[in-house]
Write a structure and sequence with these properties.
GMP Synthetase, Chain A, domain 3; alpha/beta; nine-stranded mixed sheet; 2 domains; four-stranded parallel sheet; Rossmann fold; 17 helices; 26 strands; globular
């Protein structure tokens, strides 16, 4: 079956690719590889197939049972629906067994997974469809409305199949019921390239337009051999829980691929987590490894102190800067030293981290084995230890954007620049300082200020606006908007509420400005360019 080259033909020129430090065995590095089949083979060799893999309140699937479901769905995609390897499949759903099986089946079948946040609205979904050109979508029936709205303006998305829906031609369950249980023929994947594409991971850029980070099957295996092996060190008897969505690479690794790599199992809740519900379920399920953002840990600390979870042995924080006060609060409440880490969608997962006795107060940790990191000046020259500068990283994973001129902003002379400022001490520990762009990281979510500005400017009361991050003790940062109003629209608390609701109706709710301040004019240069740094100074003051 021919391979769809849509993604391969839209990769950056190889001269703009990052330097790669391969950490895979020579036998794997020298051949075409399917990451999911490799993971199944690893589980078989280790004798894990009868162990539990996917858990929920309704059911527990072993490795063998999960593989059977994945095989069946992969065959539906390639045989019943006739999809070619390399074609994109959009996935939409909250973390669940159904979404995990769908993701694994798409990638195992040689297709490209485009997993989307369940909170995204039609416009945001439309932007992703424009960029990735998926042929079909697999969607939780409860989240169909926004996707159907997006599809109306994007005919490239030919069909939406839903799980958890009544019987019908677009009900995924009925297609699965009619399919046989054989695996996808090896011949069907015979024309895969040496390093086939596994997923497009979308990240909000500071311009507000989506960037798609391209990751291959080899990237997935390389990520499994890096931070999980050297820092996390999960075990087959681990039960993993956490809040990050599978649409985030932090969640995809921590709550699916890395448990599968370790022979462990992962629990998906029915409905969204709250801090109290997470602590309650952790005790019920016997959770041993937890992934969430610092904001959640801070809110969970008093709860877990009152209701301890004796099985918990590892708690991982990522997605935003971890204040040392939160680390100490959690340690006092749970008795555990938190594992902090910094990663990036472009790098797939964590590349600086520390655990146990290697933790240092205020530091994220040391570079993960397999990666190299340094603090550099604007010319890329390494700075003396103790000096604040830009972080540059190389390793077995790296940034390749899909058809995006911003590739040269992220990759320079082979090094990845995640967009953070750091200081490294003489012992090799890295200390996070700040973002060096306009990205707002609030409670673990990335928000591009310009996209919030665009939504605000669609309201008739707003003449001009600027959106920046404001430091916040609970969420790390919050979205703050400075607005200049049109004549006839007086400032008032009621208008603040109207503008916040307006943004929520256009963008995912976590992107709305939690604070809005009205100004007579915005600070601008002589040429009219908005001086964001002055707004940031105002917010920090």
């Amino acid at each position: 079956m021919p391979y769809d080259r849509f993604v391969l033909d839209r990769l950056p020129p190889q001269a703009q690719w990052p330097t790669r430090l391969d950490n895979l065995p020579a036998a794997v590095a020298g051949q075409s590889v399917n990451a999911i089949q490799t993971l199944w083979g690893r589980a078989e060799q280790a004798g894990w197939m009868s162990r539990p893999l996917l858990r929920s309140e309704q059911e527990i699937l072993t490795y063998a049972q999960t593989r059977a479901r994945v095989d069946r769905l992969a065959r539906v995609l390639t045989h019943s629906l006739g999809l070619q390897p390399g074609q994109r499949v959009l996935l939409r759903g909250a973390n669940s067994i159904a979404l995990a099986v769908a993701w694994l089946a798409v990638v195992q079948a040689g297709l490209v997974a485009v997993c989307t946040m369940p909170l995204l609205r039609a416009k945001e979904l439309g932007d992703i469809i424009d960029k990735s050109q998926p042929v079909i979508a697999l969607c939780d029936a409860r989240l169909l409305e926004e996707l159907e709205t997006a599809r109306a303006g994007h005919p490239t998305l030919q069909r939406i199949l839903s799980w958890g829906s009544p019987q019908g031609p677009d009900a995924l369950d009925s297609l699965l019921d009619r399919s046989d249980q054989t695996r996808v023929d090896a011949d069907a994947l015979s024309e895969l390239p040496d390093d086939p594409i596994a997923l497009l991971a979308f990240t909000s850029g500071t311009t507000g337009t989506p960037k798609a980070a391209v990751h291959s099957h080899r990237d997935l295996l390389a990520a499994c051999r890096a931070w999980p092996d050297h820092v996390l060190q999960a075990r087959p008897d681990d039960i993993v829980m956490g809040s990050p969505p599978l649409a985030f690479t932090f969640g995809l690794g921590g709550l699916l691929l890395f448990p599968l790599w370790a022979g462990a199992s992962v629990y998906y809740p029915d409905g969204a987590y709250t801090p109290s519900r997470m602590v309650e379920l952790m005790a019920q399920v016997g959770c041993t490894v937890c992934y969430t953002a610092p904001t959640f840990y801070r809110q969970m600390a008093p709860l877990i102190q009152q209701h301890p979870v004796p099985t918990l042995r590892i708690s991982v924080s990522a997605g935003e800067a971890l204040p040392d006060a939160t680390r100490q609060l959690w340690k006092q409440a749970s008795g555990l030293e938190m594992i902090d880490g910094i990663g990036a969608t472009e790098m797939f997962h964590i590349f600086i981290s520390a655990a146990g006795a290697d933790v240092r107060a205020g530091s994220i940790g040391k570079v993960v084995p397999g990666y190299q990191a340094r603090v550099v000046d604007d010319q890329g020259q390494e700075l003396p230890r103790g000096t604040v500068g830009r972080l540059a990283v190389i390793g077995p994973t790296g940034c390749r954007y899909l058809d995006d001129s911003r590739q040269t902003n992220y990759v320079r002379h082979g090094w990845n620049y995640p967009g953070d400022t750091f200081m490294q001490d003489e012992a090799g520990y890295f200390y996070y300082q700040a973002r060096d762009d306009d990205m707002i990281i609030t409670a673990g979510y990335n928000v591009g200020g310009p996209e919030v500005e665009d939504a605000l400017l669609q309201h008739p009361a707003v003449a001009e606006c600027g959106v920046v991050a404001k430091p916040d003790a609970e969420r790390g940062m919050i979205v703050k908007a400075y607005c200049v109003l049109r004549a006839g629209h007086p400032a008032s608390p009621e208008l603040v509420k109207q503008l916040q609701d307006h943004v929520k109706s256009h963008l995912a709710p976590y992107k709305y400005p939690r604070e809005i301040e009205f100004l007579a004019q915005l600070p601008r240069t002589e040429t009219g360019k908005l001086q964001r740094f002055r707004l940031r100074q105002m917010a920090q003051a």
